[in-house]
Amino acid sequence: MKTFVINSIIENFNLGKYFNIICDDPRPICDFINGELHREATVCHAEGAFSGRNKYIIFTALRRSQAIQLRGFIKQNAPHVFIMISNSNEIIGRGFQE
């Protein structure tokens, strides 16, 4: 029981958020991620399966407090985008675990 509780605490302590953001114009969102949150993002070109329109997918990993800020920014400035947010307890790289 102790091991389970300790593992849960450690996993929640390291918990981060992984975002997939599907949008028409990635620039304002990427500017916020880079400029305000001081994080990086990757942008890929995509095509809507139903509409056939050009889309972009932004991938980024954030700490929980940064995730709240990004959700607020998107809700206020780009409410039409589609966001998938996943919990991730193991993010390795600059600014996270090395």
What topology does this entry show?
Blueprint: H1 2-13, E1 16-23, H2 27-35, E2 42-47, E3 54-63, H3 64-77, E4 82-88
Antiparallel strand pairs: 1-3, 1-4, 2-3
Could you characterize the architecture of this molecule?
The protein is an alpha+beta fold and 98 residues long. It has one domain (16-88): Alpha-Beta Plaits. Helices cover 36% and strands 32% of the residues. It has helices spanning 2-13, 27-35, 64-77; strands at residues 16-23, 42-47, 54-63, 82-88. A hairpin with a 6-residue loop joins strand 2 and strand 3. The chain starts with a helix and ends in a 10-residue tail after the last strand.
Keywords:
alpha+beta, Alpha-Beta Plaits, single chain, 32% strand, 98 residues, four-stranded antiparallel β-sheet, 3 helices, elongated
Shape: elongated
First-to-last CA distance: 30 Å
Radius of gyration: 15 Å
Quantity of strands, as a count: 4
Helical/strand content category = alpha+beta
Give the count of helical stretches.
Answer: 3
Q: Could you list the spans in which at least 5 consecutive residues all have pLDDT below 50?
A: none
Percentage beta strand: 25-35%
* Average pLDDT number: 88
Return the CATH class: Alpha Beta
CATH architecture: 2-Layer Sandwich
Q: Under CATH, the topology is which?
A: Alpha-Beta Plaits
SSE topology string: HEHEEHE
Query: What strand order characterises the main sheet?
Result: 2-3-1-4
